[in-house]
Every structure is written in C-alpha cells, then in structure tokens.
Amino acid sequence: MRFISSISLSGLISALILFAQPAFALEKVTLQLKWTHAYQFAGYYAAQEQGYYEAAGLDVDIKALQPGKDVVLEVTSGKANFGVGTSGLLVSRQEGAPVVVLAAIFQHSPYVLIAKRFKENQSIQDLNEKPIILRRLSDELLVYLKRENISLSTVSASTPGMDTVEQLLSGKALAISGYISNEPYRLLQEKFPIEIYSPRSIGIDMYGDNLFTTSDEIKNHPERVERFRAASLQGWEYLLKHPEEAVKIVHQYAPQETVKKIEFERSKIQPLISAELVPIGYMNQARWEHTATIYKEAGALEKGFSLDGFMYDPNPKKDLTVLYSAFVSVLIALFLVVTIVYYIWRLNCRLKHSLSQVQHLAHHDTLTGLPNRALFVDRMQRAMLKARREKSLFALLFIDIDRFKNINDQYGHTAGDEVLKASCNRMMACIRESDSLGRLGGDEFVVLLEDLRSSEDAIEIAKKFQAAVALGVAVEGELIPTTVSIGIAIFPSDSDNEEGLFKRADAAMYRSKQNGRNSIHLYSEIPV
Fold first, then answer.
1. Of 43, 45, 56, 189, whose CB has the highest number of CB atoms within 10 Å?
2. Would you say residue 21 has pLDDT above 50?
3. What angle do CA 477, 479, 481 make, to 5 degrees?
C-alpha cells in the first residue's frame, strides 16, 4: 500500500531498487525450521514451489532442524538468515538473543495437553497430582495447570531425546504436552483413548509459529528482509486457497509421512491461522503483551521485560538522501528500459492486491478485523436459509462491554481500544469453527451460534465469553477490570426474520444491563 499510494520520485526509487533485483543472480538465504519437514511449514514450501521467492530475487534453502540443534542459535549465529520459532522467542530476547519477529503465522498456539482417558466425563481436574510431562517452552501449559489449581508437584520436564508419546503409552505419564497436529494422530493410530485440553478454554491464547530474523539482518539487509517476508506470506495465502494442492506440496518435502497424516495435520493447523478474520502474518501489540504476561506468570520472563524492538516494523522511516544516492547508482548499473517494464508489471500486481484489500476493508472492522454489520448480516441470512432448510435452530448474541464509557473516561481512548481488541481475541478463542463473531461499532459485539441443540448450548458458550473477558486487560502495567452483558435471541422461536432477531437480542442484552450487568438473559425469559 505504501508503494502504490505514492507517485513521488522516492516511490519510483524504491520500486527500482526492489524490483530490479531479479535481473541479477538470486541472493542466497537460508530459512531454518524449528522441526522436521511438516505441514506446519507448508506456506514456505508453497512460496518456493510457486516461484514467489525467485520472483523476489531470492534463492531460499529451507532447512529442517537437525537433532540437538536450536533454531534460535542457528539464526543468531549466522548459519541461517531467517527462522520459525514459538512465542518462546520472548525468552530468547530476554536472554540476549537479538531476535525480531517478522510475522505471526498461527494466530493461536498449537500446544495442548494430551491426557489418557481413564474415566467417563473426565475433566482437567482429574489430572491433579497425576504424573504430567511438559516439553521445554510449554509455559502456557504450565500457567494453564496453575490457573486450574492442578498441583505442579507431579509435573516434570521432558529430557532431550525423550519420546513423550511412549511415556504416555507405557503409563509412566498420565498427560503430556504436544502439538494438536502431531501427537494426537499417533495416539489415535494406536487406538489409545485420549482427552485433549487447550489453554484457550480459559483465555490463555498466544501466537503459534512465528517467522523471525535478527536485528542485524534487518539493519544490514532491510529490503531483503521485506522481500522474504512478503514472498513467504504470499506462499501462505496460496496454500490456504489451494488446500488439496498443499498436501501434495508438503508430501514432496516430507515423503516419509503418509498423505493421511498430512491431511490430519492440515485439518488441525488451518483453524489456528484464522486467515478469514485477520491477514496472514498479522501481529497485535496487545496479544504479545498478553503472551509476555503468561511467561512472566510462569517465571520465564522478568517483570520488567519490554517488547521494544521485538516486533518488526514493515514501514520504517527511510532517509531520502540514501534513496536518491541509490537511485543514481541504479540508473547507472541497470538497463532502464527493462527495469521500467518490470516495474510496471509489478505495479499492476500490487494494484490488484490493493483492490482486494479495499474490498476486505469494506466488510471488516478496522480496529479488530472482525466482520462489520454488512458482512455479519449476510452470514446471518445464510444461517437462516440453512436453518429453515434443515429445520434447525441458531442463536444471535448481543454482547456489550459493561461501563465502557467509564473505561474511556478514566484510562483514555487508547486503553479503550486495547480493551476492545483484547476482548475480541478472548471471545474468538471461545467460539467454534461454525460460529461467527462481529462488531457493530463502539463496544457492541454480535455472535452467531449455529447448529445448536437448545438454548442451553447458547448459554454455555455465553458463559465462556463472560469468563474470558472477566480476566481483565493489562494496559501499560495497569489491570483494567472488564465484564460483559449478554442478550440471546433464538431462531426461529424468538423471531424468524433478521430485524426481529436483532431487536430481541438487543432487548435481552439491555435486560442484562438493567439487572446489574455482567449477566446473561434469554429473550424468551423476559417477562411480558
């Protein structure tokens, strides 16, 4: 957007520098993965196979992690230019590693707690004082156990080379940490009964796989960093649009895996990316602050840890004198006609991309990235058609943040925006794949819950929203208390049309506010 919005001389200079690169030999760079080849790295494979890296002037070597190696050390020692890491990059940053995160690929962490199912209606509370093995950098699971009041006296860390699945199968552990896309598949193949518990169920929600580099790489090769980042994200976008082709691409890099295993990984990983809600690679300062809070609670980060310099800025201020000098050098070194032709071609590509972004903004809230009223109404109309066809029911929820005006008045509008974004993220962690969350404006959110058995299902999910938001939001070191009032209308019993459902959900929400806030009301239970 920066490039195509400016017709200035400096914009032309930037284009010539950026787009002239492929006219020469490709720059060799290395991407270090944090594990063996698997579907979780599929976007990078797609960028390679579709030629996006080559178009960006790069010859990329995608390396699987060798046993005993550490991805952060491989990148910071100069053996690789870029890497894929967990949110534990925060810990590496505190320890002195000059890591900078370029993009968050997974909007949600794939780490889960996998337990043996040994009783009916088993819950995480049944793991109290049972042997649990956690991998290094499983701090979110450690905090999850602490918040669920699970004793940590029987929790131990895995050792290098330990097969944690084997520990679970043999009965030496009753629960282990793992990736939602990996260990569960092996256990299901063994027909081993399991229960999976996610920290997201109580609002612990952090980024998963993150693309990162070093501050030196950004300082010495800023344009190369931006070209690599853009081509990588383009690969991920292609992957999500072509899921069947993605399996074939991954199988080329991981031929030892079966197609069935790769398809299982795809089914578990794609929901973590949330590309239908936010752009690929999107990062939010408040989400990283939330992650830092989790690591601090686990004792992995110091209280004074700062995020300064940790998040990549794709739009840094540039010195125009340097750009003019570079322009002169480029004019001398390059065949001007070839460069301009190439520039026009790339400009056309970016114009098409810009149009796509404009269309996205027309249907999404700019602050939270959620569907706006127009897009939400369209989804609700589709839900009505489906419910009438299948003779099923769905629920419309109106959610209002209590005393939001007081939050703005007391803490400022910037803090108010952070409360809205944090509340959005927490509610997103509570809904199912078939549900939709939208923002009407101000502090008003709406939720569409499809395929319900009864109104009780809607109430249970609404309670999860209440619990997640009630954790409060930390802004500049101060915890802002937050609660929500929720109103619920059921289709078709409360109304069988769009306008009626909106009015009845709104009326139920106002009844919740009238009854002291921080409560849930069904429209059908409001006295006539």
1. 43
2. no
3. 165
